[in-house]
Amino acid sequence: MQPFSLSSLIPLLTFLVSFVAASSAAPAADYHEQLNLKPLPQNSLLASFNFRSNTSLPEFEAHNFRFFPRSLGQILQHAGTRELHLRFSLGRWDAETWGARPWDGTKEGGTGVELWAWLEAESDEEADHKWLTLTNALSGLFCASLNFIDSTRTTRPVMSFRPEGDHPNTTMANMHLLHGVLPREVVCTENLTPFLKLLPCKGKAGVSSLLDGHKLFDASWQSMAIDVKPVCPAGEECVLQIEQTIDMVLDIERSKRPRDNPIPRPIPSHELKCNTTKPYHADDTCFPTDSLNAQEWTLNQIFGKSMLGKCPLTDPNVPPVCIQAPHTRDVFTSMDVQEVKEPGNENQRCYLLPSNEEEFHLALPFMPRDGDRPKTDADEFVQPATPLLYAERSLTGHGQEHGGVQAILTNPSPDAEVEFVYMESLPWFMRIYLHTLKARISHRTGSDAGQTLRDDDDVIKEIYYRPFLDRQRGTQLEIRMKIPPGSTVFMAYDFEKTILRYTEYPPDANRGFDVAAAVITILPSNSTGGRAARMSNLRTTGMLLNLPTPDFSMPYNVIIFTSTCIALAFGGLYNILVRRFVGRDEGPEVSLVKLQKRLQEAAQRVKERVQERLGVAGKGAKKVEGKTD
Amino acid sequence: MPNVQSFSTLRARSYVFRLPLFTRLMVLAIVVLWLVGIQSAWDLRKWGALIPDEMNFFTAYRMNTFPLIHLNLLHALLNLLALTPLLERFESEYGTLTSAAMFFGPLTTIPAVAYVILERVIFRVNTPVMGASMWVFLLFSVEAVRTYKINPYFVIGTVQVPTWTTPLVMAFVTAALIPSTSFLGHLCGIGTGYLFGLGYLKFIAPPEKILRWIEGKLNLLGRLPHYVSVDQKTYGRFGVLPSNNSSGKRISPALTHIDQLTDGSGTYKGSTSLSGMVGSTQRLASALFVGRSPKLQKAPPYISLLLIVVGVAWLFMLPMNDYSRRTYISENALLPGQVHTYFGGSDQNVLRAYRHEIGALENKTNTEVNDKLEHMFRSMGLKVGRQNYTYTTSGNTVAGENVYAILQAPRGDATEAIVLVAAWRNVKGEFNRNGLAVALALTRYFKRWSLWSKDIILVVPPDSRAGTQAWVDAYHDSHDSRRVADLPIKSGALQGALAIDYPQEERFEGVHIVYDGVNGQLPNLDLINSVTNIASGQMGMGSSIQHMFHHNDQYRDRLTCMLRGMVNQGLGHAVGPHSSFIPYHVDAVTIQPVGQGWHDEMGLGRLVEGTFRSLNNLLEHLHQSFFFYLLMQKERFVSIGTYLPSAMLIAANFTITAISLWVKTGYGRKADTAKESKDIKEKKGVDADAKKAEQTAEEAPAPVERELYLPLSLVTGCQFLGFVPLFVFNHAPASLLAPLFVVVTLLSLALPHALSFFLVTTYRPTHQQYQLITSFFLLLLGMFLSTLATLNFSLAFLVGLLATPLTFVRPFPKVPAAQYAYSALLSLLNPGVVVLGAAVAATTLHGRSGLGLGVVGVSPWEAVRKVLEEGAFGWGVWGMYTPLIFWCVWFPAWVVGSVVVLG
Known about the structure:
heterodimer, A: 14 helices, 29% strand, B: globular, transmembrane (chain B), Rhomboid-like_sf (chain B), Gaa1-domain-containing protein (chain B)
């Protein structure tokens, strides 16, 4: 009896302890964090961190913050912000390889910094004023140049964004949506630090302890998001929810490199994996086998540090780490970790951590591709879902006067059509010609399959266009489109490049101007249900627009040139104005001319005399000659 | 014509009521057709407009309908306002019947035909035109020519502007101010108007006899209201109209009369009459040029000679230490040679394997090669695209398929990219086995780094001449999609490109940097400096340019190097796969390993790695350093400010002679002119004082009228003649090129003799006319060359130098020996003979000229064919304008110059 009671006591004790810990942090459900790992094809790994905390609205109004960060809360109250979305992103999502985006793309932004918020204001002017307050305050909080979101970069989207929170109808009427992007802002560690500071565990424990600037910003794609919105669950009181998300795609091979030796030196030749079937294979000749084969990895290898237990403020029943991999994938974890599988989703495995402060380890070993039980790609990763829409955008044309933009939008689905809003917010110096906006469609299936393109105006359902005003606001273009199944739409428009004023060029003007990513909001389709029941987003890549750029040493050349011209012109003009012109015979005689004249006269006299005396005597002539000398 | 000051509604009303018949009909037709054009059921404009491509025998009606159809109300209204008074004037003068005959006949069809020919044959575009503005300009220029005969100049400051230029100015202003006007169409109208105004189209007018007969038979005068009779035209509303002959005589006494007001020394004695004031101002202005001093009059040829000598000497001074500068890195961000390169070790094993793989593909087809390469790229995890292209020049078809792979910058956003080109075959057609292997191994190695801020694109074209051009064109969407396919995937703005050309199997001693772009455009000097710096400073390789592998940095070698560069730039052809990038403002060079040494392909890889790391550092597009320079050693250059005067002086020598001849032709010493004026003066009974002035006037040159028609038409005609060889050589099949060349050269040698004979027998050109001819063609030549010097210095210099004898062409009527000698000299400098000579000279060079024409050691026949083929290929594929300069700038000048010598 005794051994039984003792052995059964330990779990009981731990349970009690954990219960006490949980109750002390009540209400524990107000903070939630989770790390989702998802191996992707071509040796990549998607890591999604999600942190969520709630505070009830009355408490928020009473400045009684618990898990909600005070610094941010005060800004929101001061600027009358009802809902806030802030994004810091870097890199591009390779939809072709990695498939659909995490969170349906709703938690990501275009390259750089993107901010949109619903502000409560009586008028547009008040909203603008509050927006200014908000951007400036956030700029200080997140060490980002958000204060550069001025009127030229601010748009008021009409069709693309919908409030995500539950707002009472009375406030809805006075809510203004403002949206701004900074495509040139480089996201860096200085943005991560304030981001982590907002978390209750501040990166010291729990999944956030894995976050490290070196690895995060070495990722192939990363997006940090903050969403603040009021949520009113049915039958309960409304809460204000802040959700912080970090998604990143890590290149496993690159991430595994030790931090003190990150240089990809060539590996020793004996470690090189070669294709030995090649006829020329030798010790010094090696055709490399697929370098894209899955690799082994562990959690602390790829994040550069290990996870320090779990955050004590979370609900102990919610597993902090989950991995989405086929059930045939071998996964090893540290001791005392409980594996939880959701019944419906057999590819998802979650891990409940013991409440002690021990490090959590996770390892995915190498799975041999040969031998008696060979593994395939299907055992390595879950085949990613096909996205609803592929979007690609590029600049066309060359030269410094005109250009064009082409967006290629493909609906990969064989049977469902996709409806979305395509939003561009372009800088004012990109003067677009709306009449050149053309959509051509090419079907991959059906009667006109193949590369045949035809103009199709049916694709574009609705256009909202707010033209630019020079130096005041940019172009806002929202297009609602519907693409039939299995078709590609080529949408293109032309624009003219503006010559800016000398002082309007940014530093490094010859780099070009970044144009923000286009935001595509896929509208929920009510017909098919299932697949696109919710709104989802995607963004194209940014563009680099080359404007005619002056040579900035030019002003000095101009100054020198103008000065010379003025000096010359002034000299000549002054000379003409001041000088008095007279005829040669009228003016006083110049000494040299005088001398010449006298000499001539003298010579003339001599000549005459000589002619006179020639007839008389030779002597006299000689005498005269001597005289003149 | 009514003017604005005297406008009153009453007069306007009466003017409108008195409009003659034909004018009324035309106005009515324009209004009616505009009304018809409003409806949308039948596209009137498409039916009636002058569309060059749709012109054939059955659509000839368009030539008559197009002036009556207008685009919109504004267009019709403006044209009506302009046309009505002009047409009314014409009709009042020539009569209704003649007007109808002329405007439904030659005056509409001649400009229309000229326009269609110009559009279709020369510009190869298809711009539909419509509207009466062509008539407006035609009538306007007829008026202008008439005004010119009465009142030759209006004076702005001291500049005399001939009044006949007004329509041209108007056409320019219209083209500049009003969008979508057809400048060419207007020019055709103006040209025809000039011809008509000068009376050269008189013969097309219907004979008066017939008109009278028709008029009398049908009693048109009685039946038709507002009809202007044939008889009425001779003494119509305007009374006796100024005719051609009387004005010429009337003007000279007027001018000589002015002469007596200004005495020989040029002191102005004062006159109250306005005409005297204007005349004396003209006289003074011209006196400044030549009137005063006969020495000054003789100076221009010597000045021209001096300019040529100084221009050439200038060029030869450049290689000296005092005039050239050492190169330096201007863009700090490049930091060449400041990074460690890690390409090496086991990567060499991979490279060897790639070389085996590529070697096995040598004799496979383009598609098989690309399939294999695509597979290799995909297994490296790159995005792959393929692109087809087909070019046809000289009857040969160049087709192929480019394959390219994009290594997406690990943290980048597809905003910028750098390009690595490894063509399957280099410009000489050699198999670029090692180059491609290095490029593949490098790409695999680059994939491991995460520091790239720009995408890296590896392009593998099947050849180095057309493939890269097709790819770059398509990348910038400036391709003709019938010949070149679109690119399936793209990246960001190209910031730089590097091509590897490594066909040799052995280890190498150093690298040869090829940098000349199409049309003599050059990459930023910083790029060349970076490569040189990394190669010499970091890798310890030698580097060389312009095939000068043993450069001792002395005057002679520097000069040779510079001249080689100038020849390459002057020819303007692509010397490597990088050349096609440069016109798109993408700085690019080709790196060729040369010589026998100890550097292996890994060294080349490290050189490319270092250069890519430098380019990767760039925050801005390369813009700091020079784009216009002449390199005379890898580390020594002259910039545009220093070398440009050389070509500009040579171009200026033509202009100076042209201006001096123009001034000279305004003053003749012809006895008849002087005598004539004497007679008139005697009639007037002038006093003794005037007689004294007259004596001096007889000694001083007397103003004479310039006979412009013959010189202008000869020079213009020859200028257009240049398009014939241009067209022939760019469109003839390769097999016919050499025979055609011989034919064209022989014809062009005979042409001046024939033209000269024709001129002498038909027109008997005067000395003044020959001088005017010389003046015009030299003016054109000087203008073209000085403009060209800013775009392609070397070409402008070379053509200028070859054309210098043309400055001194004069008719040699008295010294036949000099005439024959000079004409023989010019024959030697015939463009065709020069091409032949250059081709033959190139065959004897030992493959070191670096011209890449592949003519070493072949027969002259073959060499000429290759040169011409290259010209046609460049024109069709690269957009190289050297043939245009050759045949449309130099050739016409040569023909006219030779005619002058023979005259």
